[in-house]
Amino acid sequence: MDSNLRNLKDFLTLYNKVTELCFNRCVDNLSQRELFDQESTCVDRCVTKFARFNQNMMKSYVDVQTKINAKRMEEMEQQNAKQLEQQQQEERIKAQLKEKEAAVTVLTPAASTAKLAM
Fold this sequence. Notes:
This protein is an all-alpha fold. It has two helices and no strands.
């Protein structure tokens, strides 16, 4: 699902829950079309309280998520550095083996000719 569509769906779900919650808490009389002053004030307070709570929760979420992301980045950088170090060490070992093989092949023909000369 597209992230924008998912965000819209989440917003509308939240809006519907807040509307239902505040309506059930504040509206007592359905005999009139307009809200009484007391009901209107209650709905305003309910929605404001929820909006503030939601804003504070989002701030906390962003702070925590930022810390988590920074930690993940640090772990990834450490892992990449470790892999690079391992690759470099493997390359050094391969180079040393090649040098030893080259030294052995250089010595072998000389040792053979020495035996032949005897």
